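[recover] target loaded
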C-alpha cells in the first residue's frame, strides 16, 4: 500500500468512528429497526401517541447489547416482516434499553430505571402490554417459534382486553 492509500484509509476510518460517536450521543427519541419500524424511547411521547391513536403500547425492556435472549427476540421477531406488518397497524412500540456498552442520555437511563421499578421488571427481555390509557394488560418475554407465532401470542394476550 502506498502512503496515500494508507492516509485515505485512516481518514475514512476516523470519519466513520466520528459519525458513530455522534449518533451514539444523539438524543433522538426514536430507534429505527431493520424493518423500518420506529421504536419510541421517550415513554411520555409514546403515551401521547397511544392515546391519540387508540393503540396499545408494547414496552420492550431489553439489554440490547449484552442480553442473549433480548438479542434473539430482536433477531427472530422484532426485525421480521410478519411482526412489522402487525405492529405498524396495531401497536405503539417502546424500547426501554439497559445497555452495558452503549452510551445513553441520562434522562433516558432514569426513565427506564423508574419504569422497570414501576412494572416490577426482574429480568430481560420483559415485554409489557399497556392499554392506550396506560392500564397493564399483560406481561410476557421471549417465546420460541419466530415472528408469526409471537404475533399470534401477542394477539391472544390482547384479545378482549381493549
Amino acid at each position: 500500500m502506498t502512503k496515500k492509500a494508507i492516509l485515505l484509509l485512516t481518514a475514512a476510518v476516523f470519519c466513520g468512528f466520528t459519525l458513530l460517536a455522534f449518533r451514539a450521543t444523539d438524543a433522538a427519541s426514536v430507534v429505527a429497526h431493520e424493518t423500518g419500524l420506529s421504536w419510541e424511547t421517550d415513554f411520555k411521547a409514546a403515551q401521547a401517541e397511544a392515546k391519540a391513536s387508540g393503540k396499545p403500547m408494547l414496552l420492550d425492556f431489553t439489554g440490547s447489547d449484552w442480553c442473549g435472549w433480548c438479542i434473539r427476540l430482536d433477531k427472530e421477531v422484532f426485525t421480521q416482516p410478519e411482526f412489522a406488518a402487525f405492529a405498524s397497524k396495531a401497536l405503539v412500540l417502546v424500547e426501554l434499553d439497559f445497555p452495558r456498552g452503549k452510551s445513553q442520555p441520562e434522562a433516558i437511563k432514569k426513565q427506564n430505571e423508574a419504569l422497570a421499578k414501576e412494572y416490577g421488571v426482574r429480568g430481560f427481555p420483559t415485554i409489557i402490554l399497556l392499554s392506550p390509557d396506560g392500564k397493564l394488560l399483560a406481561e410476557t418475554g421471549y417465546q420460541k417459534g419466530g415472528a408469526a407465532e409471537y404475533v399470534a401470542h401477542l394477539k391472544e394476550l390482547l384479545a378482549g382486553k381493549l
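[recover] notes: The mean pLDDT is 86.
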